[in-house]
């Protein structure tokens, strides 16, 4: 039982990172019906950038924010916030540039053309990661101590680590902020209108191109934050990370009902747990196959996902 | 040709008769073609002679010639063999993605299944389980493991892979476009994973009195894969040539490729082929016209997959080994790029794309990398970043030439009519894309001619 709780906690932390990436998929799909294949690789580049910012020059990084376990807490927070800011900003910019170069010219082309373009873009980004970071796994020393925060409460059978708390502290406010942005602000309303019907939204005075660009901006920013969270939580990054993580997150978005923000978060938590349970109780060798199995099963049996799509005819 | 391509008999006898008829009609057809399209016929003839003579010529003459005179390297026998393997796959994917318009991102799965068919049926692998069966093989009797002759394996691979194609197709038929692409991608990832992970199977099944029990059985060879696999075997010629090396393997590949072209061409112009076109253009309309969309799509999946089965089992026999690492997602994408590069929907385009990209991937980029390495070893080797180049190719192709370099006339019309969907939306009517090869250009946005009796024209008025 204790072991199960421990596995679920690990799954929850990974699920929160998936959620940030899944939101990028679901936002873009909701608005232009494109599976943004390159999104996972934007996430990968985010974690790669975070690696270079943090890792000391001795291990091949730039060491601009050389945060380690020993760094005093205020400085540590300041450095991590700086890394987050840089990664979010850079990835948001890159994502907007990708939209401009690879997707916008294909807005009126047959539906599969932007998808194929996205696959091409994914390979471009992946190889940028390969050129940049090399073929091997890049690891950093843990930034957070491996203490059990539950120990003061007298619980020792399972643990919540500071790294897991960090993931929650980064992701949950972003999820809430995004939800408020989409539901409460003028720009959020423009996004929802564009998602429903771009032409009518345009006639009503919504700048469709700008709205789509902002969607990519937000998606890229979330992917950048997720990249930092991934690096600091799992202590590694690699150029292939985008493909695997991306498919997990995409599965999460589909599981929740693509186009549905709450659904993406719920789906991501479920996929995080599926990953953790399969890793522990079955074998890490089978985890990918199980996630794909889940993906296929949902698409075949309930393409609208758990919470349903915001638009019914998207399958 | 158009007259003969319509009539295909059933069964092997029908096929043999058909091929014999085709060969008998060839001289006459050729004279007619020469009269009507002098330039292109002569060009194609030269190309044909080049392809047929290349393996021998390249092996004994051109290799030296290119080393000394020609600035670009010639593909060696291995690369030439892989050209034929990838061309067969590109033709198969072209059936699924080009003819039927179903984007399959997991095509590598069928390639893998084909390869493992050969690995299971022509290697000592199952000897460890005490399963020894030599069936008509050219391996001596008493050899460990299962040994089935190469040609029979090809047939078995086609059947097995087509079955898997149908199995994948069946539950996914309701899905459209991008969702289908993702499901196939998932399938393409699961299959090699299964081959990788089934290296230690413990299994027990009780069926009444029969108890099947296995403990720690190495079913698929795991990460190491399965080797050695029996080489392809060509009766009679095998005494003279080794089909695993030298130009003989290229000829074998070309022979299989020729069969693939023949089959694909006939499918394209058959009733099924026209139904695929109709589904690709507009599934709902096709269904209204009486096309059985479920059956037609299933056939596209099964038949398209079977080409990969042939390519896979030929590849495994040729290399003598099969490992799961080889069947990566990137192979699916590579074949997709071949089809797109050449011109989606066009068999010759797919072949051209396969030849060009295989040459680029296996000969030209390593050669350039070597040259760069000689001059400036610190510069990146383009062969290591090949997919960077392919990614750029995909993005640029979609942007500037979505119809490919040898476009199919129908698909060209579809892909070049930008804003057609907008027009549909604005007019509130459904504007039919030009699927009429006989319609004059310029009428593509309004042309409503019917292509064939299967797609009756009278029912198509708005």
Question: How would you describe this protein?
Answer:
The complex is a heterodimer of chains A (315) and B (462). With 315 residues, chain A is mainly α. Chain A has 11 helices and 2 strands, in the order ααααβααααβααα. Chain A has a two-stranded antiparallel sheet. Chain B is globular. In chain B, strands 1-3-2 form a 3-stranded mixed β-sheet. Chain B has a two-stranded antiparallel sheet with strand order 4-5. In chain B, a hairpin with a 2-residue loop joins strand 4 (201-207) and strand 5. By secondary structure, chain B is mainly α. The interface between A and B is large, with 47 and 49 residues.
Give the SSE layout.
The complex is a heterodimer of chains A (315) and B (462).
Chain A: H1 2-32, H2 39-54, H3 73-103, H4 112-133, E1 138-139, H5 162-184, H6 186-196, H7 198-203, H8 208-234, E2 236-237, H9 241-256, H10 261-282, H11 284-301
Antiparallel strand pairs in A: 1-2
Chain B: H1 2-5, H2 11-36, H3 38-68, H4 77-99, H5 108-121, E1 122-123, E2 133-134, E3 146-147, H6 150-172, H7 177-197, E4 201-207, E5 210-217, H8 247-268, H9 271-281, H10 283-288, H11 293-319, H12 329-342, H13 347-375, H14 386-400, H15 409-416, H16 420-427
Parallel strand pairs in B: 2-3
Antiparallel strand pairs in B: 1-3, 4-5
Helix pairs in contact in B: 2-3, 3-8, 4-8, 4-11, 4-12, 4-13, 5-6, 5-7, 5-11, 6-11, 8-11, 9-11, 12-13, 12-14
Oligomer: heterodimer
- Could you state the order of secondary-structure elements of chain A as H and E? HHHHEHHHHEHHH
**Can you count the helices of chain B?**
16
Query: Alpha-carbon distance between the termini of chain B?
Result: 35 Å
- Mean pLDDT of chain A equals 90
- Average of the residue pLDDT scores of chain B: 79
How would you sum up the major sheet of chain B? 3 strands, mixed
Largest sheet of chain A: 2 strands, antiparallel
| Class based on secondary structure composition and strand pairing of chain B | mainly alpha
Pair with the biggest interface: A-B, 47 and 49 residues
- E-strand count of chain A: 2
Low-confidence stretches of chain A: 311-315
State the helical fraction of chain B.
55-70%
Strand order of the largest sheet of chain B: 1-3-2
User: Could you give the distance between the termini of chain A?
Assistant: 39 Å
What radius of gyration of chain B results from the CA coordinates? 24 Å
* Strand composition percent of chain A: under 5%
Number of helices of chain A: 11
Shape of chain A: globular
Helix content of chain A: over 70%
